[in-house]
Amino acid sequence: MSGVLEGIRVLDFGRYIAGPYCATMLADFGAEVIRIEKRGGSEDRFTLALGSDGTGARFLQVARNKKSLTLDPGKPAAREVVRRLVASADVVIVTMPLPALRAAGLDYETLAAINPRAVYTMISAFGSDGPYSERIGFDVLGQAMSGAMYISGDERRPARLQVPYVDFSTALFATVGTLTALMERQRSGQGQMVEASLFTSAVTLNNAFLMEQDLLHPDHKPQGNRGFQTAPNDAFQTRDGWIVVMVLGAPLFARWAELMGVPEWVDDPRYATDQLRADHADVIGARMAEWCHRRTTAESLAELERARIPAGPVYTPQQVLDDPHFQERQILKRVDYPTLPGPALVSDTPVRLSRSPHGIRQRPPLLGEHTEQILNELGFGSEEIEALRKARAI
């Protein structure tokens, strides 16, 4: 059975995470994705290096199921290659500020003139309008400028999340937009521009706190792992590690109070609502901390689970790999790559469809592995390809 997106050709001009992972999601569901990068390899190919050639973990994660074409769109000799590629494409994904796109001839107006049926997905740091539209940026700017980094810190300093959630959420938002535009094209026959940005994604994810600030002006001060809306909602140290516990709503609080040996707290007006419990998190958190200090992580989690209270261990990366639920779910699949010391654990498609095939079909490509194949399909002969090489266009 073929993938849902079989027959859809995607050009991935993206870099780092947001654009490439959008293309990866399309590839997982059957689209043909051509990753286009400069002749020496783009910088994102070498992030978190694992291979003997410098190939990095992030590239391996976002480049499965793709073909690789080396191309410098800025070279005059490359313009015809770009034109034929775009003419053959259903989706074009780019991640550059608008001035750089125009300089490379990869802006929407230029490409739509070549192929008005193509969906053009543009991802940038700050979007195409506003005073920051020409700025460049990474995930951490979204974390910082959305307010999330401030409220995630403590009284000493802000705290970023090392996992680039702004990049990946932007990729998923862009994927939804791209698929929606493809569906609309079935009715209209026309492509359109899909726009996503790191800043917009980060603000969207932090919307509830921004809404609260706008209406109520609580001016939250950073308080580390402790939650703002209920208690207990924090990380607690056990005799041999750390766990997280979150109690939300009256039924959960009643069960927690019973487990803690303070059932009278259920009727205490100080703890009548989630917000009041958050306001008294120092008292509630101290009770939880004292309880955890007398128990190991395993003992704490076993008792909390029997009481049906949401809790979990704070894992190291190795403990994640050792977890039985992680292993049974097969969230990561082992994928061979020529320059690695062994198969890499690459994340499979993070959603499952019951009937339609999806997932990892082929390993990430070597740099330029499919250049000649793709150019031949576009009608370039061997002499033309050699001329492109001499011009350093491919």
Structure in words:
This protein has 394 residues and is of the alpha/beta class. 41% of the residues lie in helices and 13% in strands. It has 18 helices and eleven strands. The strands form three sheets. The chain has a six-stranded parallel beta sheet, sandwiched between helices. A hairpin with an 8-residue loop joins strand 10 and strand 11. The longest helix is centred in the middle third of the chain and has 24 residues. It is elongated, with a radius of gyration of 25 Å. The two termini are 35 Å apart.
The percentage of residues in β strands lies in 5-15%
Range of helix content: 40-55%
What would the average pLDDT be, to the nearest integer? 94
**Number of distinct beta strands:** 11
Q: How far apart are the first and last residues' alpha carbons, in Å?
A: 35 Å
Write down the overall geometry.
elongated
* SS class: alpha/beta
Quaternary structure classification = single chain
Tally of contiguous helical segments: 18
Indicate the low-confidence ranges by residue numbers: none
Strand order of the largest sheet: 3-2-1-4-5-6
What does the radius of gyration come to?
Answer: 25 Å
Name some characteristics of this structure.
394 residues, alpha/beta, 6-stranded parallel beta sheet, 3-stranded antiparallel beta sheet, 18 helices, 11 strands
Layout: helices, strands, pairs:
Elements: E1 9-13, H1 18-28, E2 32-37, H2 57-62, E3 66-70, H3 79-87, E4 91-94, H4 98-103, H5 108-114, E5 119-124, H6 139-145, H7 148-152, H8 165-188, E6 193-197, H9 198-205, H10 207-216, E7 233-237, E8 242-246, H11 250-260, H12 274-279, H13 281-293, H14 297-306, E9 311-313, H15 317-322, H16 324-329, E10 332-335, E11 344-347, H17 371-377, H18 382-390
Helix pairs in contact: 1-8, 6-9, 8-9
